[in-house]
Design goal:
The protein contains two helices and no strands. By secondary structure, the protein is mostly helical. The chain has a domain at about 20-50.
Length: about 60
């Protein structure tokens, strides 16, 4: 049997092997989402400073 035809272990088995939990994955996703929002906010601020338009401040 070649390595290609060998059955893969379930994802959960790999997650246990590497110490990944649902909570740790959610924390990582939350951190990435926060970074993306902050990056977009920074870009929008720079565009506003450059007079690129957008919504007026409240």
């Amino acid at each position: 049997m070649s390595a290609r035809s060998a059955p893969r272990p379930p994802i959960a088995a790999g997650a246990v092997t590497y110490g990944v939990t649902r909570e740790s994955l959610l924390e990582r996703v939350d951190d990435q989402a926060l970074a993306a929002v902050m990056s977009m906010d920074r870009i929008l601020d720079q565009q506003g400073e450059a007079g690129a338009g957008g919504l007026p401040p409240d």
